[in-house]
Write a sequence for this structure.
């Protein structure tokens, strides 16, 4: 296992070698240390932070300051993984200059190595070009883009209709041309993810997008069974919620019965 910090060169190399990328979200120090020492390639401080760690009902309220606070903790906890920060809603959509100022803070203040942004419009392609031109690596995100939940109407699967599939493929190609180093594909049909993956030279990283992507990402809280409901695509290797509850119930009983300490 590589012991020094993973770089973009490594990510490009494993894509060429056909080795899938292992990606998990991280939000705080202790869990980051465990994930980092378990060989995860990319740790993503997702704005899912808002839902799993801050108790918001969507990712929309998450602020740049909240993200920076958690990114700094993840940076302190990691030695090996490549670090990506989500840019929160409305911190990058107004203009490429706004995106540059926000993204720059994540590299300068929080030690992140790349940023992730959602969407595949022409305007977003210009923003990706602007960031990559000044040396900020960008991971893009298509399919179910949670920051657009109100526009999309729900968190359901995207890319079911042929016209939408063609639009997503075209957006993916534009994103690659704009200089993004990777593309997250969230909750789209497996066949569409396969089609996009075969057309791109940059790695696709799937979440609920089937087995044909170049890597897989999960929200760590879903994966470990910490959330109350687990999405169908998250494997159930572990149910930490139940294990924590059982430990707390047992200890609480021992305390109340004067058996602890
Ligand atoms: O916010 C997030 O955690 C994400 C990943 C699920 C891709 O965007």
């Amino acid at each position: 296992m590589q012991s020094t910090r993973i770089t973009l060169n490594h990510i490009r190399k494993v894509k060429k070698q056909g080795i899938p990328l292992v990606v998990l979200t991280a939000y705080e120090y202790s869990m980051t240390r465990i994930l980092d020492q378990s060989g995860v390639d990319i740790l993503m401080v997702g704005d899912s932070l808002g839902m799993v760690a801050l108790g918001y009902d969507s990712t929309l309220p998450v602020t740049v300051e909240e993200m920076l606070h958690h990114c700094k903790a993840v940076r302190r906890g990691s030695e090996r993984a490549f670090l990506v920060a989500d840019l929160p809603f409305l911190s990058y959509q107004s203009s490429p200059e706004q995106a540059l100022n926000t993204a720059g803070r994540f590299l300068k203040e929080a030690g992140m190595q790349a940023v992730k942004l959602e969407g595949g419009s022409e305007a977003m392609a210009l923003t990706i070009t602007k960031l990559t031109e000044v040396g900020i690596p960008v991971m893009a995100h298509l399919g179910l883009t949670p920051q657009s939940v109100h526009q999309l109407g729900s968190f359901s699967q995207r890319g079911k209709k042929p016209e939408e599939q063609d639009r997503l493929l075209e957006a993916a190609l534009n994103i690659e041309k704009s200089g993004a180093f990777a593309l997250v594909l969230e909750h789209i049909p497996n066949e569409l993810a396969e089609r996009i993956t075969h057309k791109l030279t940059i790695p696709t990283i799937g979440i609920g997008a089937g087995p044909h992507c170049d890597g897989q990402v999960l929200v760590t809280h879903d994966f470990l069974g910490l959330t109350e409901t687990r999405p169908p695509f998250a494997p159930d290797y572990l149910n930490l919620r139940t294990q924590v509850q059982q430990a707390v119930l047992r200890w609480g009983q021992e305390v109340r019965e004067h058996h602890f300490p």
In short: The first strand starts at residue 21 and ends at 25.
